[in-house]
Amino acid sequence: MAIASCFACLGRPLLLDSDQEPVAVKTRKALAIMGYLSRMSGMASPREALADLLWSGTDRHKAMQSLRQALRQLKSAEETAGIDVVRSAPGHIQLDPSAFASDLMAMNTLLERGQAADFRNAGELWRGEFLTGYDDIDSEFSEWLTVERERVRSELISAAFKHLNRISTEDGGVQAEAGARFVLKLDPAFEAAHRVLIRLYMKLGQRERAEQQFRSCEREMHLHLDAEPDDETRKLLSEVEVEATGEELFKRQEALGPIGGGLSNSDEVVRLPEISIVSSSLLKKGLSDAVHLREEIVSGLSSFRSFDLFESEYFGDENTPKPTLVEGHELGAYLLRFRHDERSGKIVVQFEDRTNGQIVFNEIVDLTLWEGIVPAASQIVGRIHGHATGRLRNPANTSAFARWCQAEALLWDFTPQSDEKAMRLLNELEQTNKTFSMIYAGKASIIMKQELHYPLNDRTSSEGMSSLLDMAERAIVLDPWQAVNQRVYGWSLILSNMPEEAKRAFQNAGRLSSSDPANLMSVAEGLALSGDVNEARETAERAFRLFSFVPRVFYEYLANIFFAAEDYENAIVQIERGTGSSLGCLTTRVAALVCSGREGEAITILESFNEKRNHFLLPNDNPNVQPEQWRQRINFFQDARVRANFDRGAQLVQRVLFNKPD
C-alpha cells in the first residue's frame, strides 16, 4: 500500500501513519534502522551490517539478538500505524519501495521540478539535519551519520543548483530567489547561493538589496567558517562600482560610514560608565558558589556592553585598596565589591559611587533563599544597570551614551510623541557618532513601531519600511555582539519574510545577554512569531524567573507567545494584564477573542476603543491611511494556520476602526 509519508527523517525522526500522525516506537535504534535503510542502495542491508553498526560494543550474537528485538518493535509500531514497510529475510532487511516514502524523498521530488513554489515547499520540509538527535546511540553509527548528513546536504544543494545555473528575470526573479533561499536555509554560509542572489538583484536593478546580500554573505561566512567571501563574490559589486562616478562613490561611502566600522575623523569616542571590580577572599577553597555568583554578575554586566569594566583580583582583605574618590566624567565611576562572609557563609555585594563615596546598595546574598545563582546574579545586574543608566536619562547629561540612554527610555514608551523625541536625539547623535551601532537599531525600532502600532499618525521618520532591513543590518555590521542590535535585526527579518534568519538573530540575542529578562522576553516573542513555540515558552519562563518586577508590556509579549501556541484563553488573560496602549496589542486581544468564539465581546471592546480613538489615531480622512497594508504588516506570525487565525481578528479591527471592508 503506497502512502503519502511514513517516515520523517529530517530533524527528529518519526514514524507516521497514513493520516500523518506520529506513531510511538519503543527505542531510537529501531527508528535508526529505517533511517539507515532509506539511504542504502535498494533500501536493503545485510543483517550483520546493521547489527555491527548499531550495537558495535557487543559481541555478534548479542548484537543480532538486539537487532531482532528492534525489528519486533518496528513491526508492532507498523501494526499500530496500519502500514507494512519493513521486510525481513534470513540474510537481510529491506524497506518496501512501493510502500515507503519519506520527507527527504518528497524534497527530492520537489527539487526535481524546481519551481518557486517547489523550493518554498521543500524549505518547509527541511526541519534540521538528517536523523537529528541520533548521534549518540552508537559510535559506529555516529561516524556513518556524520558522513551521510554531508551527503544528504550535498545532494539537495546539487539538485537545487540544476535550476540556478542560469538566472532568469522573466518571472521577476522569483524562482531564482526561492531556490537560493532554499540553499541558504540548508547552509547559511554557502557562498555560491549568496552569489546567485547578488547577481539576481543586480540584474533587477536592486543594488541596495545586492549590497545587503553581500554583507549577509560576509556575516554568515565569518560566523560559520571564520572566512571571507572570495574575490569573485566581491567583484559582482565592484564591477558596477567602476561605472559609478567619483562623486557617487563618495556619497555612497559617506552614507555607509567608514570601512571596517572604525571611527571617522568627525566621530567622538563613545565613553561608557566605569565599574572597577574588587574581589576579597573569594578564591579560597570551598567558595565555589561565591566565585560563580561573581562570574555571573560580571558576565551579565559585560553582556549589556554599556560599561567599561576594570577588574582586579585580591586574595585577602589586607590587600583590598582603601576607598578613594575619583574625578569621574558625567557617565559615572563605580566600585563593585565582592566579599565572602566566612561566619555566615553569605556573599556580600556592595556597589559604590566613586565620585561621592555613596554606597548605592549593599546586598547580602543568601543563596539558600534563591532558586539558583543565575536569578540572584540577574537581579543584582539589573540594579546596577538601572542605577547607572537611570541617572543618565536626565536631559542635563549630554554625552553620546547619555543621549542614547535618554532615547532608549523614550523607545519603551510606545507612543508616537516619545518616538518623535527619540528620533530627534538619534539624528543628533548620528551627526557626531556615525559608528555608534545602537543609533541604527533605535531608528529601525521606530520605523517598525510607526508602521505597526500607530499607522495613521504622521511619520516620525521619512525612511519607511523600504530602508528597515538596511538600517537594522547596519547596526549588526557595526556591532554584532550587541543584543539589542540582534533583536531589532530579527524583527526586520520577520517583516522581510525571512523567518529562519530571524530565528537565528533572536537566538543570538538570547545568547549574548542571557541574564537580562527584558532581552529574553523580546527574544521569546520573536521566536514564537518565527514559529518555534517550544523554545519561546522556555525562554519566557527563564525571563519570568529573573524578573524582580514584571513590566506590564511583557504580558503582551507573553500573550503573543500563547497565541502562537493556539492557547487563546491564556492569550486573553495575559493581554488583559498588559498596558493595552497599542493597536497591535488590541489586535492580538481581538483575534484571541474571535478564535475563542467570543466575537461579540471583541466587537464591544473595539467600539469602546473607537470612542477614544483620538488618543491613539488620527481621523479617518488621513490620506495616508492604508488599512489593508497595515493588516498584512502587523501579522508577524509565520505559521500559516496561526497567521490565518490572527488575520481573523485583524479583519475585524479593520472593519470597525477603519470603516473599511475586509
Q: Tell me, what's the shape?
A: globular
- Could you name the ranges where pLDDT drops below 50 across 5 or more consecutive residues? 1-5, 240-267, 314-321, 458-462, 615-622
Sheet with the most strands: spatial strand order: 8-7-9-10-11
Task: State the helical fraction.
Answer: 55-70%
* Average residue pLDDT: 83
The secondary-structure class comes to alpha+beta
- The figure for the number of domains is 5
The fraction of residues in strands falls at 5-15%
Number of strands: 11
Main sheet? 5 strands, mixed
Total count of helical runs of at least 4 residues: 27
Instruction: Tell me the distance between the termini.
Output: 45 Å
User: Whole-number radius of gyration?
Assistant: 29 Å
Feature tags:
662 residues, alpha+beta, three-stranded antiparallel sheet, 8% strand
